[in-house]
Task: structure prediction
Amino acid sequence: MLRTTEMDPKFKYEISKTPGSEKLMLCFQCGTCTADCPIARFTDSYRPRKLVRMVQLGLKDRALSDDSIWLCTSCFTCVDHCPQDVGTAEVVRALRNLAVKERPMPRVYKELSSAIRKTGYAYEIPQLRLRQREEKGLPPLPKGDVESVRKLFKATSFSKTIEEEEE
Amino acid sequence: MAEQELKYLLFLGCVIPYRVSSYEVSTRKILDKLGVELVEMPEFTCCGLPLDPVNHDMMLGLAARNLALAEQQNLPIMALCNGCFGVLNHTNKELKEDKKLREKVNEHLKEIGAEFKGTTTVKHLIHVLAEDVGFEKIEKTIKKSLNPLKVAVHTGCHVMRPSKYIGSDDPENPTLLKKLIRLTGAETLDYIDENECCGNPIIGVNSEIPLQLARHKLGNIKAVKAHALITVCPFCHMMYDLHQPRIERTFNEKYGIPVLHYPQLLGLAMGMSHEELALKELRVKASELLTLL
Result:
């Protein structure tokens, strides 16, 4: 059951101002995204059409606390197939971006963020692999420009999200 | 007309040096043979893709920084990973078109003394091979036809979709990689759900679903009796090669399908040895396949 008190009329505008989600309100719920989604094929819990509807209705809390938003692989099949050019995968990404400001992010993203902040790369590449590169005749891997990366974390305010996660 | 200069900034990304160096080794070998010059870019960092789910601005910042560095070198970028290609190409085109977004991203870049101007281009290895090197030139380097081989193809998502930002192949019926494979003499086999995602991007959140996706694909590939699966992305490769034994254990099934990076296949046709192409680094051994050649 839906209660009007659950609905935030401004939520759809919050989402539709993010790049790629501008046409959110044009979704007429045809269900092509869900029908063609490779993930929806293997699990009942992920339904992109439903997530778009939740946003249109302003069901902010429900949408942001729905763990299924983390199941999109960003294969962009829905983006290519949408007859209304809604950019469904981009709407899901916008939901994820907002969700992490209010609640803990999945652990894997904490690990990726922390490796990038520390080394400039998504993974901390072990010394052994670096030595093996030499043996294989591959050029040495550069040290990532960590200082610039850190400054970008600050400039985009992402450092705030990450520091809250670390606390 | 003067021949196009084949010189690119190599965008290696993170996962290739971390786990899939056979892709890098074999790529360097075949490009050297084709006269493609690679310029190392020590200043590059992560492309930005891993952070898109948690902070889109941060992804844009990292991608735009890499693009701005390439602009200074006045050379195009060549990525080996579908993910790096997708995010760098998308960001490059979006920032060129969207002045407001460009200004916002450049505000962030100002903090590190960089600026996105929009003067570089981004290509994936298969675009460089098919469009810049060209089929004719590749054909001339083939020494040994891989004629007895029948292979299945997995192009991967981010080198095709969203099609409005890429457009060099038809995501509903991709042919670019197949054409490149046929140059080696190997036959390409069609199979069900060929264009479906490997599932790897969510394996850190939920491993069960991607394993089901990969199992489904491996089953369809086995059904057409392919000798191997060919990929051009380290993430797709990990899903089918590195995780194949785990899929076999989980579902109590046997696939035994070797997964080769396209440059490994091309290198074999160029007459290179399996040692040179780092075939022994594959999790699913390709020894049986080699006896067919």
Chain A is about 50% helix and 0% strand. The radius of gyration of chain A is 19 Å.
